[in-house]
Amino acid sequence: MSIEINQINKSFGRTRVLNDISLDIPSGQMVALLGPSGSGKTTLLRIIAGLEHQNSGHIRFHGKDVSRLHARDRQVGFVFQHYALFRHMTVFDNIAFGLTVLPRRERPTAQAIKQKVTQLLEMVQLGHLANRYPAQLSGGQKQRVALARALAVEPQILLLDEPFGALDAQVRKELRRWLRQLHEELKFTSVFVTHDQEEAMEVADRVVVMSQGNIEQVGTPDDVWREPASRFVLEFLGEVNRFDASVHGSQFHVGAHHWPLGFTPAQQGAVELFLRPWEIDVNRHSSLETPLPVQVLEVSPRGHFWQLLVQPAGWQAEPFSLVFDGEHIAPLRGERLYVGLQQARLYQGNTPLRTVAFAESA
């Protein structure tokens, strides 16, 4: 079932939390609402569910306006971060709950409910725990029960509010893979809230990056990673280094070194330069490709490479991070290295300039 979100605005008192939000979610797609705390992502999810009501705008499910429908009439499944299981009920009864409280004319027979719950227990790999209580389950098991309960009423839309946020890292990874596989099998439309970038990138078909009640970018995980639409997206997604620099004519300056740009930008003067750690060349010797001296502060093994924290030697104030190829001997703390720039994104304030590739410095 498709979801159409059209010009949604929401305020709590004088605080504006959603600003004219519009978003189309095709049927069968899994979408992540990704952003920091206070970005409005959970409020938007609750408005889709009918647990909050917008001040203006419309929500449509498969073309039908559900903006004023009560949550129970929207036929969506909702999975909370902290499970919200009934402590006095067994796993079986928790999953069956949504079916047992349906109006009599819609309620399945007891035998049909038993069959459905048994099927769901097998699907979430908890058939052997049907008679246990929530207190006897691990966090990962509780979240699987919560998901099975949401799926019991066969919703065409599944909404999840940071579903793995309360779990440890290894369990989160396992459940992410499992949820993605389940989605591929059942093909339901799903929207989930997360502040975990890795989770969004691994699970979602599309990522909606939000900040301060606005949508910054919508795209595939690869799109938002490789082609960030704004400075916020660039800085929010993954690790990025920022350097002070300047543009004079067609020359780009960092410290005492400068590079030809191959074009003359309209914006001249002070700019900021952004590079991911792996977009920085590093060498033990100064060269035209690696002219900028740095001192190694920290060395962190990362399997097939080392992550280094380095301090620029006179050309920049703040330390930054880079990747050192694991095929070479690991550098030592205090060792002097030399770095150069592969390619970089330039910004003047929040105004993006074109991405540039650097050759040799002059």
From TrEMBL:
<protein>
    <submittedName>
        <fullName>Sulfate/thiosulfate import ATP-binding protein CysA</fullName>
    </submittedName>
</protein>
<dbReference type="GO" id="GO:0016887">
    <property type="term" value="F:ATP hydrolysis activity"/>
</dbReference>
<dbReference type="Pfam" id="PF00005">
    <property type="entry name" value="ABC_tran"/>
</dbReference>
<dbReference type="InterPro" id="IPR003439">
    <property type="entry name" value="ABC_transporter-like_ATP-bd"/>
</dbReference>
<comment type="similarity">
    <text>Belongs to the ABC transporter superfamily. Drug exporter-2 (TC 3.A.1.117) family.</text>
</comment>
<dbReference type="InterPro" id="IPR008995">
    <property type="entry name" value="Mo/tungstate-bd_C_term_dom"/>
</dbReference>
<dbReference type="InterPro" id="IPR005666">
    <property type="entry name" value="Sulph_transpt1"/>
</dbReference>
<keyword id="KW-0067">ATP-binding</keyword>
<keyword id="KW-1278">Translocase</keyword>
<dbReference type="InterPro" id="IPR003593">
    <property type="entry name" value="AAA+_ATPase"/>
</dbReference>
<dbReference type="InterPro" id="IPR050093">
    <property type="entry name" value="ABC_SmlMolc_Importer"/>
</dbReference>
<keyword id="KW-0764">Sulfate transport</keyword>
<keyword id="KW-0813">Transport</keyword>
<dbReference type="GO" id="GO:0015419">
    <property type="term" value="F:ABC-type sulfate transporter activity"/>
</dbReference>
<dbReference type="InterPro" id="IPR017871">
    <property type="entry name" value="ABC_transporter-like_CS"/>
</dbReference>
<dbReference type="GO" id="GO:0005524">
    <property type="term" value="F:ATP binding"/>
</dbReference>
<feature type="domain" description="ABC transporter">
    <location>
        <begin position="3"/>
        <end position="237"/>
    </location>
</feature>
<keyword id="KW-0547">Nucleotide-binding</keyword>
<dbReference type="GO" id="GO:0043190">
    <property type="term" value="C:ATP-binding cassette (ABC) transporter complex"/>
</dbReference>
<dbReference type="InterPro" id="IPR027417">
    <property type="entry name" value="P-loop_NTPase"/>
</dbReference>
